[in-house]
Amino acid sequence: MSTSLATAGHGHAEHDDGSMTTVGFWIYLMSDCLIFATLFATFGVLAGATAGGPGGRELFSLPFVLTETMLLLLSSFTFGAGMLGAAAGRRRVLVGWLAVTFLLGLGFIAMEVHEFLELIHDGAGPSRSAFLSAYFGLVGTHGLHVLSGLVWLGVMIHQVLRFGLDGIVRRRLACLSLFWHFLDLIWICVFTFVYLREFTP
Amino acid sequence: MSHDTQAHGGMRSYVSGFILSVALTLASFGAVMSNVVPPGARLALIVTLCVAQLFVQLVYFLHLGSARSQRANTAIFACTTFLIAVVVAGSLWVMHNANVNMMPMPMSVHQAMMHE
Questions:
Q1: What Cα–Cα distance (Å) separates residue B103 from each residue in A129, A158, B98, B100?
Q2: pLDDT tens digits for B42-88?
Q3: Stretch A148-155: mean pLDDT, rounded?
C-alpha cells in the first residue's frame, strides 16, 4: 500500500491511491506531446519558407542555445534531487532544491525572452516569414509551458512550507516532476530540429 | 514506501541520467560546431543523438520501463509515439508533395509582398 493512501486518510476505493492521478496526468502530458508534434510538423513544413528574409543560420547563436540547454538540463537534475528529499521526508532539502530549480528555470526564460526581443528588434519577428512564424509558435509554446511550470513550482514551494509533505502535496509534486522532466524532453527535440538542423548542409 | 523508492530511482539514477544527457548534448553541439564530423553525416548523427537522449531521460528521469507500476504509462507512451510519427511524417510527406506539384506562379516573393 502506498504512503499517499495511508496519509490521505479517506481511502474508500483501491483506485483512489494517487497512482490513477499520475496516470491521468501522464495522459494529459501525452496530449500535450501531440500539440508539440503538430507544431514540429508545421515547423518542418515551413522551415524553408523564409520569404526572402533571414534564415536560421544568420539568426541563431549556438553557444547561446547550448547555455539554455544546460540550464534546463541542470534544472531537471535539481528537481530530481528535490524529489529524493521529498521521498526521504526532508522538507528543507526539498524546498532548497525546488528553489534552485526555480532559479534555473527563470534563467532559461530570461534568456529566451532576451533572444525573442533581439530577433524582433532585428526585424526578424514572427510576421517576417512563415519560417519565423513557425519558429516563434513552436519555441514560444515551449517557453509558455516553462513559465507555467515556474508558477506551479512557486505554488508547490508555498504548499510544502504551509501544509508539509502530506499525501496530497506529494501527489502534486509527482505530477509537477513529470511535467518538468517532460519539458526537458521537448527541448531536446527543439535544439536538435530547430537550432542544430539549421547548421547542417 | 517501496513504491516510492522504486518510483524515484535514487540519486544514482539521476546522476547517471544527468551525466549521459550532458555528454549526448555536448556531442550534438560538437558535431555541428566543429569540423570533426563530415558535413553530410551531421544531420543523421544529431537525430540519432536526439533519440538516444530522449531514451536516456525517459528511463533515468521519468523512470519509464517495464516495471509493473510503470506498465500503463509505458503503453500510453508507445501509443502516443505512434500518433506523433503519423502526424509528423504524414504532414511532411503530404506538404512536400503539394509543394512539388503546385502550379508555377508568375509572381515572385517580392512582388507578392508589394501587393499587401
A1: 21, 60, 10, 9
A2: 999 999 999 999 999 999 998 887 788 788 889 999 999 999 999 99
A3: 97
The reply to whether B68 touches chain A by the CB within 8 Å rule is: no
Which residue, B3, B17, B12, B81, is CA-closest to A174? B3
Query: Which of B25, B82, B87 best probes binding to A when mutated, by most A CB atoms within 10 angstroms?
Result: B25
Rounded Cα distance, A188 and B58, in Å: 12
Query: What ipTM was predicted for this assembly?
Result: 0.85
Nearest Cα to B46, choosing from A42, A31, A175, A188? A188
> Are A105 and A82 spatial neighbours (Cβ–Cβ below 8 Å)?
no
Question: Which residues in B lie closer than 8 A to residue A181 (C-beta atoms)?
Answer: 57, 61-62
Question: Do A196 and B76 lie within an 8 Å CB cutoff?
Answer: no
Cβ neighbourhood burial of B93 (10 Å; 0-12, 13-18, 19+): exposed
Alpha carbons A130 and A115: distance in angstroms, whole number: 18
DSSP letter for A70, please.
Answer: H
The Cα-based distances of A174 to A86, A127, B56 in angstroms read 10, 39, 19
Q: What percent of chain A has pLDDT over 70?
A: 92
Contact B69, A19 (CB under 8 A): yes
The C-alpha atoms of residue A140 and residue A134 are separated, in whole angstroms, by 10
CA atoms B66, B69, B70, B75: torsion sign: positive
Going by C-alpha positions, the residue among A125, A142, A122 that lies closest to residue A194 is A142
pLDDT tens digits, A82-124: 999 999 999 999 999 999 999 999 999 999 999 999 999 999 9
Q: Give the A:B interface size as CB pairs under 8 Å.
A: 133
pTM of the prediction?
Answer: 0.87
Pairwise CB contact (< 8 Å): A200 & B83: no
Task: For residue A9, give the C-alpha cell.
Answer: 486518510
